[in-house]
Write a structure and sequence with these properties.
Elements lengths: L1 H11 L2 H24 L3 H23 L4 H16 L4 H18 L6 H27 L3 H28 L3 E3 L3 E5 H21 L6 H29 L14 H20 L1
Antiparallel strand pairs: 1-2
Length: 275
Amino acid sequence: MNFINALVNLVKSNLFQRLVSACFLLAVLIFNIICLQNGTNLWFFYTTIYAVIAISFWELNNIFFNKHIIKSLILTAINLLCFCFIAELPIFFPLLIGSLIVFNLLSTPRLNIKKTIVYLLYLAILLVSFNFIFFYLIKLPSVYILTFMVYIFAISIMTDTFGYIVGKLIGKHKLAPSISPGKTIEGALGALVLTGLCSWLIYTLLPFKLSFNYFIGIAIAGCIIAQIGDLFESYVKRVGGVKDSSHLIPGHGGVLDRLDSFIFLIFVVQILFWI
């Protein structure tokens, strides 16, 4: 009876909106990659990439300066300059330091060490992740890199969706109640198992040159990393005192709420590339 009630509550929840939003974003990603691979409609690709980057920076600042649009826009402009000059270290580092100075000047109260550290950490993750995406999608657009991007994004979607469904149906034990009260241990384990099973199904249906163990290993490791990224973004929002980064995407909240797992996955991949 409890399971049936949970199933009814799941149907009544925003699951449908989450699935539609996730499928729409995946379709946009695939369309952009096709455009890039074929060299057609590049204006759409560049518009999408820069829009996602700009909105993500704005949402980051909106987390800490909720309802203060001018403050958010000022920091967003500086963040975008940081991204544009990320390869020019003599310019990049002063801009990054400038972001922190302006952040503290606009904060109330000022010199909040905890908020500054969390802000710097998330800003660094966004800068590194977007630089990786921008460089490898535009400078080295091989079919393997593009397929890898789609697979990583699919892992983040599966992790979020399966974790949400399993958590709603049978979740009882809180995973991190002080950070994200809605997430459960059952949901996390369910996401891990179901993402692995779906990856196995994808591997059997589509031709991949990767070994089976490597392919499934990416799925399992990606699922774990994605959940850590989701928890980290929840912690950032808790520090900022907001529930969602914005309300742009139905069923999710903002762009960062939808892409947090994907961004964190790309960040870890970039770190591994450096190592």
